[in-house]
Design a protein that fits this description.
The structure is a homodimer. By secondary structure, chain A is α/β, with parallel strands linked by helices. Chain A has 18 helices and 26 strands. In chain A, helix 8 crosses helix 9 and helix 12 crosses helix 13. Chains A, B: Belongs to the formate--tetrahydrofolate ligase family.
Chain lengths: ~550, ~550
């Protein structure tokens, strides 16, 4: 079996100029980054303001398991399939973070015959967006410590600086650090930490901004910490939002690439799906909607986290109106949800499947709760038995839900034609708009409880003492009238990663409530949220290599 | 008076494709990064192996002073002037570090009407080379801490890890840090620090490599620290040099831009001129030599540091044979060397000038010591008096040294025509090759003393106890047969920044001797060497801004 990088390197890419032409983009609309990548001018969007939008389709999933569901692969495969059916389609994906590439992951740009290319570039530096975000993040951090060192006119409390430094690397040693050691010339020692770049609020801001000036304003509004009186200190107080915007002048432009089948793909922005909202940028999605009849996008993790934030945060802010939702599931993963062991997944096991399908059932109900029509994509594995497939088909038919088998990893767009047809039908049937599940202006706790009850299926919410205080503070400072960005384990509908399937009767424990004031949402942390991953015992980096002819190994 | 960014933004740039064509480069030879930047394929060099090289001209300077000498501006202006004289000329410059742009500096790409453009890109992310170096540097750092965390099979002594993390930011708080805090999941706490990216050995390696495979081998040879037995541990022991090379696959390719007068400029690599050798990359210079009749390059700081390392390290490693050397001086700076105060520089002061000109005299002798012909470029200021200019002219005439007045800041290439003519003559007169001043295989102390006596004019060298021990260790491990990279203050010929002019009778104190085994040189530290700058009281970042039309302010 060929590896992803082998398949990717054998593909015949079209010059990105030709991909642009196929979307009606001129030379002036694109800035080339090599032959196969380009940035799309923001003018493309503003010049097409009056044009009707294409149809927006979200791809989401059941709660992820170690078996892997293939959400990105289905997203790419569905786009390729629609293209084969003669529908002008644009795929709108998140940019992968470089850090995890060196850890376990190897790469993240779809897989098999449903990949975006050039995958080695997309997985590494790409067009430099991540680096720009890292730089803007760390310029603000340097400005904070410099301000304190130079006299601290703002009275910043160095014990309450919430802005962390960032690096696009899996580096556990940087999670908790002390900076400013070495004596007076080096400033004041204080506790600090690094996040991986995709967890930075700058990334969330990039993804929610509607223009460079909006981006600058949002960066100015970032709360960097608190002063000695306890009042919030903003980025704009340090006067560096202009320099930060300058650093982001190119990063804000969406990136155009293609799939293995030459379907256009816009890859832009990739915020963490826990501490942030886990969706690609509003600007990229809007641009794609002006260029294609169909736009296929995805959101991080399962529908309880990804789809909820996509709909309640991204679409709300961006005025986006999705027409249908694909929920990706695999038989292997559903059996894990039903209690099967990972080692036994290759055997037919209707019992575990029947127990685990409730996870899919709940995600379907969740999507319906937003007044949207879900289509289930059952991503087929060689080990799936006919009985198991028949069981799921029957289960879904009983609920009036369409299902399509997909084989996009092995067959590319050809393996997603049935799904594509069903998605077209679902989108055609959609009338009116989807509905958010809570009002931004509702009290903070009410918004949190709505998500927990309606989406997670929990009984209620318990607040840690610290969280109670933080909620009071946010209300006092008038920083509470924003959507909620839940930071919860992706593995369970609850806040306990061990409760698979469709848990009931649980309470969600909120440990911390923070404002991402620039991004414009309140982050609500449940459980331990990791914002800086580590490397495993044998990092993927150890097998990566490049030879003198440019052949690459170890990206997969 | 217009600011540099104003002048730069008013210039009519040619599409970089046209600049490439003027050098005989095809579409396939270039990878575009937007419309005005491109990476040059390494094949361009290998395909032209048999072709005769152009003439290499080095631009260096007297010891720098707060008055500023304009070395980069003269370099760009000279290139433009040669071009005006019908000589096909390529300028080969270092890439500016982004960090200092936000501090005092504002920008570093020449000035006035002798700039390289697009200056806002060159000064910020450019084509991402700095970010690639930062990533490769920090991947190695993460691999080290991960190795220790995962069981430390190599027995790395965490008290003796010499590899530091890097960031392209002026951030004093990161000079001395403790990482790995927070308990067992975060690894072992240890002292660490960040360098600014240009001070990373990866940058020096990039600049001294002759191919991607050479780069990979050199990265593998990096000494990252010592094990518990006291033996060196190498990057290759951690098996990440392949992944690091993958990260550098594009960064190794030289970048093509242009000057305000559309003269081609290759800007690639910018190692710190103290901890490293301060020259642009060998690959860029070699490529330029295959494309132009004349190649103008520069080296960091004054001739005692920059030219010496250019000749003894870069040209030695790269087999480069410079044909002439320009020494940039200003009357204002020479008066400072003669004891004048900065506030008085606008008044004629023959006395201070006569006292300070000895600095120029010594730098001339130094260049002659390498068997090269210096031409003095007197970079003219409005405040220079005729008497002062006449004095210098006479002084140099007495030594048989050519001098040219330059007004390249105000007039572009037009202001450098006289210099260009004299450089052409000097290069034509050059017979045979220059000579290095020491043999790589000589004992370490002998090499250091040769530099101190011949170039700095000192009496001898004193070694700190630590340095003695380090020299013994390097000899023991067989790591000593390499050129010396002196890390010394740039302000004086001695190691005391206060001794201006041409100090005599001094001893140089060597505090530390380190091997940059990947780069292939021994760093010899005298005095305090800063590898991470800080931001000033009012950082340049505070005045930088960009508006909705893309107009930029604050880069100068």
């Amino acid at each position: 079996m060929k590896s992803d990088i082998q398949i990717a390197q054998e593909c015949r890419m079209l010059p990105i100029r030709d991909i642009g032409s196929s979307l009606g983009l001129s030379e002036d609309d694109l800035e080339y980054y090599g032959k196969y990548k380009a940035k799309i001018s923001l003018d493309v969007l503003s010049e097409r303001e009056g044009r009707e939008d294409g149809k927006l389709i979200l791809v989401t999933a059941i709660n992820p398991t170690p078996a892997g569901e293939g959400k990105s692969t289905v997203t790419v495969g569905l786009g390729q399939a629609l293209n084969r059916l003669g529908k002008k389609t644009v795929i709108a994906l998140r940019e992968p973070s470089m850090g995890p590439v060196f850890g376990v992951k190897g790469g993240a740009a779809g897989g098999g015959y449903s990949q975006v290319v050039p995958m080695e570039d997309i997985n590494l530096h790409f067009t430099g967006d991540m680096h720009a975000i890292t730089s803007a993040n760390n310029l603000l951090a340097a400005a904070i410590d410099n301000h304190v060192h130079q006299g601290n006119a703002l009275g910043i409390d160095i014990r309450k600086i919430t802005w962390k430094r960032a690096m696009d690397m899996n580096d556990r040693a940087l999670r908790d650090v002390v900076v400013g050691l070495g004596g007076k010339p080096n400033g004041y020692p204080r506790e600090d930490g690094f996040m991986i770049t995709v967890a930075s609020e700058i990334m969330a801001i990039l993804c929610l901004s509607t223009s460079l000036m909006d981006l600058k304003d949002r960066m100015g509004r970032i709360v960097i910490g608190y002063d000695l009186k306890g009042d919030p200190v903003y980025c704009r107080d340090l006067k560096v939002e202009g320099a930060m915007a300058l650093l982001m002048k190119d990063a804000i432009k969406p990136n155009l690439v293609q799939t293995l089948e030459n379907t256009p793909a816009i890859i832009h922005g990739g915020p963490f799906a826990n501490i942030a909202h886990g969706c690609n940028s509003i600007l990229a999605t809007r641009t794609a909607l002006k260029l294609g009849e169909y736009v296929i996008t995805e959101a991080g993790f399962g529908a309880d986290l990804g789809a909820e934030k996509f709909l309640d945060i991204k679409c709300r802010f961006g005025g986006l109106k999705p027409k249908a939702v694909v929920i990706v599931a695999t038989i292997r993963a559903l059996k894990l949800h039903g209690g099967a062991k990972k080692a036994d997944l290759s055997h037919a096991d209707l019992d575990s499947l029947a127990k685990g399908i409730v996870n899919l059932e709940k995600q379907i109900e969740n999507i319906q709760g937003f007044r949207l029509t879900p289509v289930v994509a059952l991503n087929r594995f060689a080990t799936d038995s006919e009985e198991e497939i028949a069981f799921i088909k029957e289960f879904l038919a009983g609920k009036g839900i369409e299902m399509a088998l997909t084989e996009v990893w092995e067959k590319g767009g050809e393996g997603g034609l049935d799904l594509a047809r069903k998605v077209i039908e679902a989108a055609d049937r959609m009338e009116g708009d989807y509905e958010v599940i809570y009002d931004t202006d509702s009290p903070l706790k009410e918004k949190i409880e709505t998500i927990v009850r309606k989406i997670y299926g929990g009984n209620g919410v318990a607040y840690a003492a610290a969280a109670e205080k933080q909620i009071q503070d946010l209300e006092k400072f008038g920083l509470d009238r924003k959507p909620i960005c839940m930071a919860k384990t992706q593995y369970s509908l609850s806040d306990n990663p061990k409760l698979l399937g469709r848990p009931e009767g649980f309470e969600v424990k909120v440990n911390e409530v923070r404002v991402s004031n620039g991004a414009g949402f309140i982050v609500c942390l449940t459980g331990d949220i990791m914002t800086m991953p580590g490397l495993p015992k044998v990092p993927a980096a150890e097998v990566m290599d490049i030879d003198e002819s440019g052949n690459i190994v170890g990206l997969f």
